[in-house]
Specification:
The structure is a homodimer of 314-residue chains. Chain A is elongated, with a radius of gyration of 21 Å. In chain A, strands 1, 2, 3, 4, 5, 6, 7, 8 and 9 form a nine-stranded mixed β-sheet that branches. In chain A, helix 7 links the parallel strand 8 (143-149) and strand 9 (165-170). Chain A has 13 helices and nine strands. Chain A has two domains: 5-174, Rossmann fold (3-Layer(aba) Sandwich); 180-300, N-(1-d-carboxylethyl)-l-norvaline Dehydrogenase, domain 2, CATH 1.10.1040.10. The first copy, chain A, has helices at 21-32, 44-52, 61-65, 78-86, 109-120, 134-140, 151-164, 177-205, 210-218, 225-236, 245-261, 267-284, 292-300, and strands at residues 13-17, 36-40, 56-57, 70-73, 100-103, 125-128, 131-132, 143-149, 165-170. In chain A, helix 1 (21-32) packs across helix 7 (151-164). The relative contact order of chain A is 0.10. Chain A has 314 residues and is of the alpha/beta class. The longest helix of chain A has 29 residues, at 177-205. The interface between A and B is large, with 66 and 66 residues. Chains A, B: InterPro entries: 3-OH-isobutyrate_DH-rel_CS, 6-PGluconate_DH-like_C_sf, 6PGD_dom2, 6PGDH_NADP-bd, HIBADH-like_NADP-bd, HIBADH-related, LtnD, NAD(P)-bd_dom_sf. Chains A, B: Keywords: Carbohydrate metabolism, NAD, NADP, Oxidoreductase. Chains A, B: Residues 176-296 form the 3-hydroxyisobutyrate dehydrogenase-like NAD-binding domain.
């Protein structure tokens, strides 16, 4: 792609609302694929960073969205997504007819359905498209997207999806399915992190060789993606947040709210949520989610490897 | 190996106590490797099956063990292992000096340490060697063994270990370490099965396409070895026991007892244990452990795929 391509009038304009570690990478991936990308963030410095990197900035969500074919919302939850759409200077009344709103926040499927309905009532398309993969994959355009929405929503979103994702699951023609799949994944991920921390700290309490525990478990039936990914943080004593305790306070909270409303019991997710709440209450909310291991250690006197880095909040 | 080798006086004699689906396969694997194998089981028909297959049978544990270099105990728990060693016609007083007792049952590490001490006091060696891998791997001599014990115990056991296992982890020179590693694995495995059943049935409750859920989750961060292995039973509606609910009633019970005694909290394992107990109480104790999904379905009205086979206990 010639460096001039962006200035020579590309056909597709994309707006990205939310230029955090995920949104910035997604904006850059779309720019790299030749889309004309306008970014907005509530923090002006985040917009400046995108502009310094060659992107276009906007002063409000509405200004970013007004000429866009594709608006990608990369905020934290359903409430923020609603504000991006319908709040003061929100995008919904600024978007042109037939444009698509891609919602990537993790939220209750009922909220996704409601937002989709209100967005579609304005003649816009809505793609319910939670993401998974972390900041590095966002920057490389290699996210996994769990998406549902109308055929027109998918078709209009396609150039953006192709630029941002290595894999797009098409999970149905109605908003809410993507959100529901994401919540099933978050239920499992949140429980598995808690189980990994419960187990590795129990091994420490018994004086086992933790490196050997990692070697044996990752080759055994007790393994999980999260055990394999998070336990190395515990072994290194490094709780620098890659994904924080607060993410699972939020996501398992959504799981619990959904389950309560559907009269479905989730004893495993409920037990895990209590541990994330306890870790947050103990001051570790912004630390890596593997900090649950430090919580188990505090509760039991187990000794975990200590970091060679500066101490975290505990 | 010539078929005559067994009759021409092989150097090493092994006794296997407990010829269930695991013990029979382990006995056959050692026989295939050229050891002279004598089998005993509390059920005479199990001994007959081994004899019909070309093995040697014995009428008591003591009779099986009296000339053996290696005695492999393949029973259910610590109490049965103690009975094999020290009960009426137990092997401990029949074994020759310098022979090794290989204990493969899953048990509390404290029990393993006690049995080892009492066995070693008689001039015998003790290898704490829990197994993992299932009946098919037992039959192929491809188990994973998590072993600890003295150097002499390992050396004497080696021909048997090599015949039975694809991988032997050497986890320390004292009995109890092998048991402790196995319990860490069982904590994780038991929690992950419960989480898998909680999640897949929650997906069913929401009307998601369960085959698609399996596809998405096994490619995502919510995956676990157990989700990947057990959820297909739920998708097929087939709860024929490969590993039963009662196994985790037992193993998470041991985890809970260990944790209580060490003043270590295990909220995830405790929540999972309650679900196994509920499934057992509801009549599914001898069904496959993926029957937890049927329990969640009963509790919530979710509809899971039904089997094309005969109905199980529910």
């Amino acid at each position: 792609m010639s460096p001039l391509a962006e200035n020579s009038g590309p056909d597709i304009i994309a707006a990205v609302i939310g230029l955090g570690s995920m949104g910035l990478g997604m904006a850059q991936s779309m720019k790299r694929a030749g889309l004309d990308v306008v970014g907005y963030d509530i923090t002006p410095a985040a917009v400046d960073r995108f502009v310094a990197d060659g992107g276009r900035g906007a002063a409000t969500p509405a200004a970013a969205a007004k000429d866009a074919d594709i608006v990608v919302s990369v905020v934290v939850n359903g409430a923020q997504t609603e504000a991006v759409l319908f709040g003061p200077q929100g995008v919904a009344n600024a978007m042109k007819p037939g444009a698509v709103f891609i919602s990537s926040a993790t939220m209750d499927p009922a909220v996704a359905r409601d937002l989709a309905q209100r967005t579609e009532a304005l003649g816009l398309h809505y793609l319910d498209a939670p993401i998974s993969g972390g900041a590095a994959k966002a920057a490389r355009g290699e996210l996994t997207i769990m998406a549902s929405g109308s055929r027109q929503a998918f078709d209009t979103a396609r150039p953006g999806l192709d630029a941002m994702a290595a894999k797009v699951y098409e999970l149905g023609d109605e908003a809410g399915k993507g959100a529901a799949f994401k919540m099933i994944n978050q239920l499992l991920a949140g429980v598995h992190i808690a189980a990994a921390c419960e187990a590795i700290t129990f091994a420490a309490k018994q004086g086992l060789d933790l490196d050997k525990v990692y070697e044996v478990i990752t080759a055994s039936a007790g393994n999980s993606w999260m055990f394999e990914n998070r336990v190395p943080h515990v072994l290194a004593g490094d709780y620098t947040p890659l994904s924080s305790i607060e993410i699972f306070v939020k996501d398992l909270g959504i799981v619990q709210d959904m389950a309560r409303s559907e009269r479905y019991p989730v004893p495993l997710a409920a037990a895990a949520l209590q541990m994330y709440l306890a870790a947050s209450g103990a001051g570790m909310g912004r630390d890596d989610d593997s900090s649950l291991a430090r919580l188990y250690a505090k509760l039991s006197g187990a000794e975990l490897p200590s970091s060679t880095k500066e101490p975290q909040s505990l």
